[in-house]
């Protein structure tokens, strides 16, 4: 645990433009020289995968977790704030030659460092499936390289010029988004969300949700705090660029996923000891996983699930309540979410399919508010086996 200085006097929050310029400056420095204190060190990376990366990429990575372990073969993975490219090149090995990896960053020095090793990594791995794009992670539709090129021919000198540039940006986002809606299987990030301006954090979660395909998931490693940062912390530019002042409070971090529409939000890793303590506030690393895809109509196909336990009663993100050991009626959509082996719930419930298949076409609407038990007669054949009929004398 590292103890940081604890300012004794309150300070006003820093202007957003100053926050962004401070982050750019510090991470540009981190691309040119190793900054050991820039973020929480992580030692849990797969040594075999890590050994295939050039030392410079590893040394100049500033993360606090390893979200790459949640990648699957064939995934299209997107790394937000890709920095030196370390997580992208780890993802490349996990998704394999049938997958793809996109790294997003808006720091030119970090992008240059990551791109420098693309060809070499392709030779080392035997495939080349990584690319790096320039964007703000809270605005993944706008291609900043394309914007810079447009500005070369259309310099902004007047308010009219500025309005024209803003119109071009909106058209570009709509017609040629850098990351298309519903195109990504996995979004990861490693100690970057806390660097986004406070007023743009909500937009960031909305953007993560937008780019994910239905059934996709976000796995985010970041620094969180156990209570609200003090005014002195919020007024310190070094603590902003050092992943401290912009940290989410731990409970609100999870709430931000839920507010954006994610379901199955879960802490999959959490540092037991704080990384730093500033003004009595603890800052530690967590990794959170969340899923997209709970939207859709609710129809009744006579399905049920049984909560295995050990909890006596649980409630899901849509307000369904499940009681241990009881056949709880669910709609077709919820049944699929709860029993999907690639999702977050399947190990906790037992699926109870209907006795007879109910076609989707013509299935009645299922009212999902409240709770309802499923009649066992809807999930069993309803007739005794002839070999076990009372008159046969063959019952056990």
Q: Would you mind describing this structure in some detail?
A:
- The structure is a single chain.
- With 396 residues, the chain is α/β, with parallel strands linked by helices.
- The protein folds into two domains: 2-141 and 177-291, Rossmann fold (3-Layer(aba) Sandwich), CATH 3.40.50.150; 303-378, no CATH class.
- The chain is 30% helix and 21% strand.
- The chain has 13 helices and 15 strands.
- The protein has helices at 16-32, 47-50, 55-59, 86-95, 108-116, 118-125, 144-153, 159-175, 201-211, 231-234, 237-241, 250-259, 332-339; strands at 2-3, 76-80, 100-105, 130-134, 184-190, 212-225, 248-249, 263-270, 276-278, 281-291, 303-307, 313-315, 321-323, 327-330, 349-352.
């Amino acid at each position: 645990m590292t103890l940081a200085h604890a300012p004794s006097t309150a300070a006003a929050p820093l202007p957003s433009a100053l926050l962004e310029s401070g982050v750019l400056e510090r991470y540009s420095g981190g691309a040119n020289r190793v900054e050991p204190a820039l973020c929480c060190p992580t030692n849990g990376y797969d040594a075999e995968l890590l050994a295939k990366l050039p030392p410079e990429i590893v040394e100049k990575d500033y993360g606090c977790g390893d979200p790459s372990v949640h990648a699957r073969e064939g995934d299209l993975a997107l790394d937000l704030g890709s920095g030196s490219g370390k997580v992208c090149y780890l993802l490349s090995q996990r998704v394999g030659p049938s997958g793809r990896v996109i790294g997003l960053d808006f720091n030119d020095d970090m992008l240059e460092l990551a791109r420098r090793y693309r060809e070499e990594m392709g030779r080392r791995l035997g495939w080349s499936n990584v690319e790096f794009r320039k964007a703000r992670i809270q605005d993944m539709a706008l291609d900043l390289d394309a914007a810079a090129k447009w500005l070369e021919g259309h310099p902004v000198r007047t308010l009219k010029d500025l309005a024209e540039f803003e119109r071009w940006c909106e058209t570009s986002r709509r017609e040629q988004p850098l990351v298309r809606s519903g195109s990504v299987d996995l979004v990861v990030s490693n100690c970057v969300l806390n660097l986004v301006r406070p007023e743009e954090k909500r937009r960031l979660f909305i953007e993560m949700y937008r780019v994910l395909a239905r059934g996709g998931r976000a796995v985010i490693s970041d620094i969180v705090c156990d209570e609200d940062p003090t005014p002195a912390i919020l007024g310190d530019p070094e603590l902003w660029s050092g992943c401290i002042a912009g940290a989410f409070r731990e409970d609100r971090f999870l709430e931000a996923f839920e507010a954006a529409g994610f379901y199955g939000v879960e802490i999959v890793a959490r540092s037991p000891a704080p990384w730093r303590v500033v003004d009595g506030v603890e800052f530690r690393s967590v990794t959170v996983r969340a899923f997209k895809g709970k939207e859709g109509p609710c129809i009744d196909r006579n399905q049920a699930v049984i909560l295995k336990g050990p909890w006596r009663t649980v409630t899901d993100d849509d307000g369904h309540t499940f009681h241990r050991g009881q056949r709880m009626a669910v709609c077709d959509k919820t049944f699929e979410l709860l029993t999907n082996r690639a999702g977050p719930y399947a190990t906790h419930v037992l699926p109870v399919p209907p006795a007879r298949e109910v076609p989707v076409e013509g299935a009645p609407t299922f009212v999902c508010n409240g709770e309802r038990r499923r009649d066992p007669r809807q999930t069993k054949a309803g007739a005794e086996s002839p070999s076990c009929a009372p008159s046969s004398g063959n019952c056990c």
